[in-house]
Amino acid sequence: MLHEDAILAVPVSAHDHVQGNAHAVVTLLEYGDFQCPACGSAYPLVKQIQHRYAGNLRFVFRHFPLAQAHPYAQLAAELAEAAAVEGRFWAMHDWLYENQAAWAPRGAAGLEAGVRALDLDEATIAATLRDPDIDARIRRDFMGGVHSGVNGTPSFYVNGYLYQGDFDSLVHAIGRVIARQQ
Amino acid sequence: MSLLAAGTAAPEFTLHATPDQSVALKEFRGRNVILAFYPADWSPVCSDQLALYNELLDEFARLNAQLLAISVDGVWSHAALARERKYHFPLLSDFEPKGRVARAYGVYDEQHGLAQRALFVIDGEGVIRWSYLSPMGVNPGAAGIVKALEALPSNNIQKTLPADGAQEAP
Lengths: 182, 170
Prior knowledge:
Structural class of chain A: alpha+beta
Oligomer: heterodimer
Helix content of chain A: 40-55%
Radius of gyration of chain A: 16 Å
Number of helices of chain B: 6
CATH superfamily of chain A: Glutaredoxin
Order of helices and strands of chain A: EEHEHHHHHHEEH
Largest sheet of chain A: 5 strands, mixed
Number of helices of chain A: 8
CATH architecture of chain B: 3-Layer(aba) Sandwich
């Protein structure tokens, strides 16, 4: 289902975290929150979609932490950005979702396990977390999402249009776009 | 009666926000007001919708706007919801006579006895500048609100207003 405010307001750019073929037919973009259980449930399904459509799909992740609802979502997003400075964004993204049930109840202490699991330097990460650019980037993602009509997490955009429906139909919608282009 | 349109004077109201405190629309003259009518406390879609707005209070304040959410639920339900979800804006209770304010704005669902999911942006003069009726089960997000606030002449002159609109609900 689409409406006028449900079009991606901020095009994908070099500032984004992108996985997959830059020339893919389909761009699947997620606005996500690392502490959101629904995003945690979507994570393995996104992996399946990436596997299934391989070179025909690129995946973009943007931050949309609902910090009042999920008290460690903001810190988790910051940690992913600090890992990104070390070139490890996707490793941290995956760790946060794969271990969400373990770290989320433990908050900051739970998140420290991610720093160790990725073998990142704790002092470097701690210093990076104080950089105001990290917060600014997350806020920029968030407000871009608001302007794009994000109404909760996760919100998925297929080639720039907000997708509102269940996951099976998302897979089929992506399949149809690819089929049309071939 | 249908959704009040842009250009209409916003009907005045005074509603309870808590058992012993009321909020009147006219208290906000000089500031913009976002009225978010929603069907019911605790239902999943509106909770997501309000959770999103709860994250945007600083942005609304920057646009000199106060958010007021309204449903027909009673004050104790509102109090429990606000505490559980950490909402930092007033939830107003259109409870007695039930739905009177929703009716005045043309967004009362007679069949179900609930407010419809509707949004209004009211300017500092008390005039509706934007309104939107969302299908009952669809979370309308905040893009329309932000766009409407940014388009207000008072927000258009690149003047950053003080964020004193950020006062929290009692």
